[in-house]
């Protein structure tokens, strides 16, 4: 056990560890254009940040009146995303630094995301983050996506950790809500700073309203040490 006690840390992937949203936007824009929606904008995309790709395509079918089967839309989007992700995905440097600090201290870590297993594998391998985490949970591993707690609870189960001892790092309101529903503390780093007042963020233990520009590995690590001390008291 590390000097952080029984603490385990679970990271969301997209928008939290890596800035993959530009790739998801481009993949979504291209897929929707193929199926007759030519004017999908970045502002449109922002409303789906934190929503699993599978749930997103279901919302598209309703929003745009698409008759295309959800599985076909999902496959088209994932195919384009994988091409983009393999070419380039940017890791947030301070998030990598935090993962490295936790790995050096022996703290168990997981990545839990609403992305597909293939998308997660491509990003984690391509960025080298796969060497820093011991557990990966994808949308395919659970019955319900965020804001349901399933993804984080499955990560805790695989880590052998009590949810009470887990801290989640999230960029989206549905993920912060999922962490709370799972009985976990949450460091919220909003990808869209203007969404910081979303009710989903209200239960976060630490909310960095300015997003990634306010996040540093050292300050997060210090906060985690304080959380671990509180848990063990």
Automatic annotation (TrEMBL):
Pfam families: Hydrolase. NCBIfam families: HAD-SF-IA-v3 (TIGR01509). Gene3D superfamilies: HAD superfamily/HAD-like, Putative phosphatase, domain 2. Keywords: Hydrolase. GO terms for molecular function: hydrolase activity. This is Hydrolase. Signal peptide: none annotated. Transmembrane segments: none annotated. It comes from the Bacteria.
């Amino acid at each position: 056990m590390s000097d952080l006690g029984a603490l385990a840390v679970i990271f969301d992937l997209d928008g939290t560890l890596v800035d993959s949203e530009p790739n998801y936007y481009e993949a979504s824009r291209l897929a929707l254009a193929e199926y007759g929606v030519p004017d999908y904008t970045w502002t449109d995309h922002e409303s789906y940040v934190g929503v699993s790709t599978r749930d997103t395509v279901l919302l598209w079918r309703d929003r745009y009146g698409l008759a295309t089967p959800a599985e076909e839309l999902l496959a088209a989007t994932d195919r384009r995303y994988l091409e983009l992700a393999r070419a380039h995905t940017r890791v947030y440097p301070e998030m990598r630094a935090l993962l490295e600090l936790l790995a050096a201290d022996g703290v168990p870590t997981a990545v839990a995301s609403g992305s597909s297993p293939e998308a997660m594998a491509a990003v984690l391998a391509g960025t080298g983050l796969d060497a820093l985490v011991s557990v990966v949970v994808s949308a395919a591993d659970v019955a319900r996506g965020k804001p349901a707690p399933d993804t984080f609870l499955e990560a805790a189960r695989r880590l052998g950790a009590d949810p009470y001892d887990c801290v989640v790092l999230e960029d989206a309101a549905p993920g912060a809500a999922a962490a709370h529903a799972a009985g976990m503390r949450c460091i919220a780093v909003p990808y869209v700073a203007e969404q910081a007042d979303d009710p989903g963020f209200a239960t976060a233990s630490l909310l960095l309203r300015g997003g990634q520009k306010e996040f540093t590995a050292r300050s997060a690590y210090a906060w985690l040490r304080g959380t671990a001390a509180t848990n063990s008291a």
